[in-house]
């Protein structure tokens, strides 16, 4: 490979594509191979260059070498391909524009064993005249020009961060030194909302143990949230490692994903559906409790449900968005640290407002934008929230059958709309299928009508659990359908059969993903299934997974399988669960900073994936702690203080937390 690299240099120089000064310098670099001494700067430039694709060379040494300048050629392919050179400082970007063209074939090893590279290489060569797939950077100079100064927006965000930090510290001192009368005043109560001491106690306090010492079955949902966010991070680690950073084994990196060792990764596509299911369940269960406790329910109270929800989630959501939008470019450096702000916030300048109104999965042009990439989930969850109170009011106040009918209709809408979209765009089930293009993400992956089935099934579980708990407390049948389902779980064979069937259905969905990814086909189109099979699978997968979750968890939520409840209700899950919302928001930023700051390339394999996953997960949870203590909890405390009519001690935990649902439920 190194000889081909040298050949490419010679071809480019002899073609006189470079300026005379740049040609002369590169000629001296090549000549240093045969002319001693090797200690000259010219020979060092050659040593500090990456002699083959995705070898990043020695970035730091080259940047510090007199007369040298590190240059990176980055191809917009999957897996990512990069060529690193330590070249003469006199050379400019225009000198290198023809470096790989028409000699691109010398840089990319084309053979039948790597059809993915062959496919994209042909596209690259065809697009070479417009340079649409090749970017040339001088990373050190780029960082110096773009990332070494603060603009107005960065200064404003810095002031906000400093203000919140000082306020949190000052409030903590006030909690220690302030008198009881001062603390009970309006100003005192506001300050205590920001106290690190107060918020840390809340973070570390568990409500899992009841008075009799028995763990509430609902506490298992804390473990579900933590495991699901881990699943999300694991999936993103593998996908981003193979596509967003240069890997040494680029020729077979994507082929490794089809191995059975990665079977858990395929199921990661369903982790977000778990959050939707959780959100639907908790929204329903807590909403019914509150409405049944309220003798009068006005239009104003109904509208306040939406106000509570917006105020509970938006402050920390917007803080994370604006914080990383402003500062992410200052958090790293290295040969790949260029255009870093475009990775996760490419559309924030134009469409940040769409995140504020939770419509970023439709803006612009009915598609989706990339401002805080993972926020499409929040848009979907909020859109589900817009309709669920209406359904629940009809369920509670009018007729219980309306709720069940709504669940059925919503699931049918999800199945039919998803199948129709899959057929119209001829979508393949594999996320990385080259045949899908952008249509998979634009019109299928992030749209509420293709995601709503697990949420609706979670609502059905809420009906069942509330009905059984009310029956135990008041000996009253609240919902006949829900009562029949919950009563059936008293039979041991039905209970175990229900649990095992749900578990099997979930595993069928995961193993089906393995079958899809096992046969990538030519050009990684994943087309070994028939078109009809693809459409049917895409139409049913969200509903089937949500159904499996519901069937498996119903007996657990009703209090059976105590060994599962005891394990999943452990204290540690409760603490970690309080961090999951912020972890979800920031984990891709943490991952991007770590990946793009690497100065050497790794191999893409299971060992490195697991190592990176553990690192990203632990670091994300650690980084989430200050954001939770300084931003999320104070915002929640203020919201409770403003809208609570009764003193805090008279409020139930469920009432206080009724707006915290799904991934952000406490």
From TrEMBL:
Pfam family, one: Acyl_transf_3
Keyword presence, Transmembrane helix: yes
Transmembrane segments: 152-174, 224-243, 263-289, 310-328, 374-395, 402-422, 442-466, 493-514, 534-558, 570-593, 613-631
Transmembrane listed as a keyword: yes
Annotated InterPro entries: Acyl_transf_3_dom (IPR002656), O2_lipid_transport_reg (IPR052728)
Ranges of residues in domain Acyltransferase: 221-627
Record key words, sorted: Membrane, Signal, Transmembrane, Transmembrane helix
Signal peptide bounds: 1-17
Record GO terms (molecular function): acyltransferase activity, transferring groups other than amino-acyl groups
Record-linked PANTHER family: O-ACYLTRANSFERASE, O-ACYLTRANSFERASE LIKE PROTEIN
Listed name of the protein: Acyltransferase 3 domain-containing protein
